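Module 6 notes. Inverse folding takes a fixed backbone as the condition and produces residue identities as the prediction. Think of it as a translation problem where the source language is geometry and the target language is the twenty amino acids. Below is one complete input and output pair. Work through it position by position during the lab.
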């Protein structure tokens, strides 16, 4: 079949159009800490891949073979960060390879300068000659300049790049051509280039109308405006495993919305839409241009924004929900807790045991679940004897701490995982005190004593100082899961007693920083799951269980653990604080271990605004979520400086998670100022807001300000460099962009009871418009307070400087607590809760 060539221009010198092979995943019998060394020792300087690189037309063409694996070359179009990105998370240590091919068209024979950007090992071949070799792994991206001679006309360019998964794998590269006049072309076997290119351009612009679909919401695929020719395409809504739930043959016209299904008709989980040409075009005319987009569906799970029922009623409700989940150890634990032995799937438990033996990621969570299962239900007559033996063998051979033999992906440095490991070690030692454990050579009693020592030290530090990963949704959920097992199952009184009061403290913090069931605080270690919706975070099921506000979701390990808890009773005044909406709450906190954070939260009956004050501005960010406005479970707004275009958790920071460079933020109750100072070499040259227009009852963008109304709550968001709403592609109608190296964002919240109607609020904000210098802002709030704030200037309100640091541990209407904290008194009306954490170590 004849080969055609599709021409493309460079983007600021970067190659954006490639044919890719891989990623090819290789399992190597090597310890994780020796994997990089092993790869370098066994690294080959030849491409190792066989097969002509060409975009598939016929299915029998465009194939490659490498390391015994076969696949098809496929087209890849880079996003604005210029990376060809195959980064991902893996459950165990792996070696991952990818190859990329394109053709450079040079107007003349010439020496040409390039820059290769990569994280790991990489090679570049031009016309079969190796012209660049990167022989080192790097913690961050490394730029490697090189020169190569190009022939006049076509030059074949092949890149191989390698990553290590442990469990995070950054497998990405970008290639920049510094010499002008170069174009690229992609060889293709697709016979109709016009139709192929039409589909490519349209596929880049289509979008889901939201990221997370709540119960009862229709799932729409949308085509943007701005083009005249209809797009005839086939669309499938399917699970990640390929099970199809909707299919349509439709005509995508400008501003068209295709209804695919309703969330309530689907099971909760990740879904994707697969967009392809009409079937006859795909199979008969060989036009294989496709697109995939991801979304999350909550199924029939409905959010509760008001308390309901009793704890016992919600306990049963949460277990019944968890028991419906498939292929999940904690679903089987829920069945046993409900005495539903007939529905027990022992294969799921056996699979969990096997994953622990392999020391896969999250093994410590599975181990904690198995120990709770064995301690609570192992003596019941219906408990399978085989499971007792398998669980015992698993417990006796686990790696309980980093000083034990082994090299794997277990996360001993994570704050929340540490207490899980310590809890596992305590319970293992209690279960088998006289047994010698195979991995460590220690007796169970020795493990018991070691686990208690480490757990008590860990808990005392958090009681007295707070948390390193402040208000982390995932972290707090995992900590509560561990503490629930300690409170119920630890034999030593100091352990379960301290665990109980630390649970009180955690629940108090969550209640303070929640709005109608949404834990909407800033946080020190965020994850992509739940960042854009309160329906998805790890805490929501816990708060639904404990005080009736939130929603049950896929994070069932935590809710099942707490639902099985018998020896802890939530103090009623904490639930009262979570649901308190009688007035405004202004909460200040300082917490941290080594690195302190000063954070504030302002909560009203109509919204909540939370931020970390002056937190390491200008430094590279990781997973810190610095500020957020919350008006509902899915109506959340925040601003970040993106680290890259990827939304994968493998990248830290990524497109929405964290910040490439941390801002300087200050908040005075309902008004917040965030200053962004990007370095000269910033990879992404803009800041952006997550602003889900579809979740507001009304929204307006005027005079460089975005306004939104949810119920009786208002928000106004202004950027000093102006802002624009993205209206096509994956972030359409949920992203506000503002370009510029120096930028200031102002967030003003409002309420109908104070600010009048939505139109009145807009007029008031615009009348008090901010004045911006490059890194200094003067702003008059809707209440008439004059704020000034700069990159190196303090926050000043009406001429008085306001402190951004050295806060108390807690300072709010319910408690005033100094650091370090030995005890707390929490007042609600006539009720008082005393928490005693013991003397400082």
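Target side of the pair, the amino acids:
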């Amino acid at each position: 079949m004849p080969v055609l060539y599709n021409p493309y221009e460079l983007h600021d010198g970067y190659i954006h159009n490639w044919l890719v092979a891989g990623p090819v995943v290789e399992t190597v019998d090597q310890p994780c800490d020796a994997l990089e060394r092993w790869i370098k020792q066994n690294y080959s300087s030849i491409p190792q891949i066989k097969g002509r690189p060409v975009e598939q037309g016929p299915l029998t063409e465009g194939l490659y073979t490498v390391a015994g694996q076969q696949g098809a070359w496929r087209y890849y179009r880079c996003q604005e960060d210029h990376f060809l990105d195959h980064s991902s998370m893996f459950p165990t240590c792996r070696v991952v390879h990818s190859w990329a091919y394109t053709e450079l068209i040079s107007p003349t024979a010439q020496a040409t300068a390039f820059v290769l950007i990569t994280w790991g090992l990489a090679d570049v071949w031009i016309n079969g000659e190796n012209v660049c070799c990167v022989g080192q792994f790097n913690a961050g991206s490394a730029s490697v300049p090189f020169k190569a001679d190009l022939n006049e006309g076509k030059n074949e360019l092949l890149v191989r790049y390698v990553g290590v998964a442990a469990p995070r794998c950054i497998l990405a590269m970008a290639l920049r051509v510094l010499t002008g006049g170069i174009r690229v072309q992609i060889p293709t076997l697709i016979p109709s280039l016009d139709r192929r290119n039409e589909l490519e351009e349209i596929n880049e612009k289509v979008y889901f109308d939201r990221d997370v679909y709540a119960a009862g919401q229709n799932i729409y695929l949308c085509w943007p405006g701005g083009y005249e020719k209809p797009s005839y395409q086939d669309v499938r809504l399917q699970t990640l495993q390929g099970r199809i739930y909707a299919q349509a043959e439709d005509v995508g016209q400008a501003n068209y919305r295709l209804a695919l299904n309703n969330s309530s008709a689907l099971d909760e989980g990740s879904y994707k839409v697969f967009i392809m040409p009409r079937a006859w075009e795909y199979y008969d005319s060989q036009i294989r241009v496709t697109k995939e987009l991801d979304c999350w569906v909550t199924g029939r799970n409905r959010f509760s924004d008001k308390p309901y029922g009793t704890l016992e009623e919600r306990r049963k409700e949460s277990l019944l929900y968890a028991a419906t989940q498939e292929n999940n150890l904690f679903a089987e634990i829920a069945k046993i807790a409900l005495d539903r032995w007939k529905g027990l799937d022992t294969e799921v438990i056996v699979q969990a045991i096997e994953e622990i033996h392999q020391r896969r990621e999250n093994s410590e969570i599975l181990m904690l679940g198995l120990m709770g299962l064995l301690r609570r239900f192992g003596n019941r007559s219906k408990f399978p004897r085989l499971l007792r033996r398998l669980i015992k063998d698993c417990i006796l051979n686990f790696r309980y701490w980093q000083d034990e033999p082994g090299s794997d992906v277990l996360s001993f440095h994570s704050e929340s995982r540490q207490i899980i490991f310590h809890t596992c070690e305590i319970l293992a030692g209690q279960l088998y005190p006289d047994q010698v454990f195979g991995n460590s050579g220690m007796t169970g009693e020795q493990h018991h004593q070691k686990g208690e020592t480490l757990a008590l030290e860990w808990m005392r530090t958090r009681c007295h100082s707070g948390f390193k990963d402040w208000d982390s949704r995932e972290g707090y959920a995992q900590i509560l899961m561990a503490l629930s097992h300690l409170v119920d199952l630890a034999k030593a009184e100091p352990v379960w007693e301290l665990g109980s009061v630390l649970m009180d403290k955690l629940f108090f913090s969550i209640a303070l920083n929640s709005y109608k069931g949404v834990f909407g605080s800033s946080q020190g270690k965020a994850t992509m799951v739940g960042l854009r919706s309160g329906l998805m975070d790890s805490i929501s099921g816990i708060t639904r269980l404990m005080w009736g506000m939130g929603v049950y979701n896929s994070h069932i390990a935590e809710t099942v653990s707490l639902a099985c808890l018998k020896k802890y009773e939530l103090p009623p005044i904490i639930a009262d604080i979570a649901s308190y909406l009688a007035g405004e709450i202004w909460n200040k906190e300082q917490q941290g271990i080594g690195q302190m954070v000063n954070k504030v939260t302002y909560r009203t009956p109509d919204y909540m605004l939370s931020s970390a004050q002056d937190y390491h501005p200008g430094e590279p960010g990781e997973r810190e979520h610095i500020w957020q406005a919350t008006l509902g479970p899915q109506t959340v707004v925040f601003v970040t400086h993106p680290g890259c275009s990827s939304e994968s958790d493998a990248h830290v920071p990524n497109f929405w998670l964290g910040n490439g460079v941390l801002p300087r933020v200050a908040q005075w109750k309902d008004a917040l100022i965030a200053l962004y100072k990007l370095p000269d070499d910033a990879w992404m040259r803009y800041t952006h807001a997550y602003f889900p227009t579809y979740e507001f009852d009304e929204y307006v963008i005027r005079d460089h300000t975005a306004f939104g109304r949810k119920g009786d709550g208002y928000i106004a968001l202004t950027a000093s460099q102006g802002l624009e709403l993205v209206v096509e592609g994956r972030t359409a109608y949920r992203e506000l962009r503002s370009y510029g190296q120096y930028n200031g964002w102002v967030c003003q919240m409002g309420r109908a009871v104070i600010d009048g109607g939505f139109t009145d609020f807009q007029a008031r904000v615009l009348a008090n418009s901010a004045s911006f210098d490059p890194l200094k802002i003067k702003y008059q709030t809707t209440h008439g307070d004059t704020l000034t704030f700069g990159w190196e200037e303090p926050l000043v309100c009406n001429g008085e400087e306001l402190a951004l640091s050295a806060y108390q541990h807690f300072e709010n209407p319910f408690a005033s607590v100094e650091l370090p904290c030995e005890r707390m008194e929490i007042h609600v009306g006539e009720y008082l809760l005393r928490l005693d954490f013991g003397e400082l170590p």
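Reference fact for the lab report: The longest strand covers residues 94-106.
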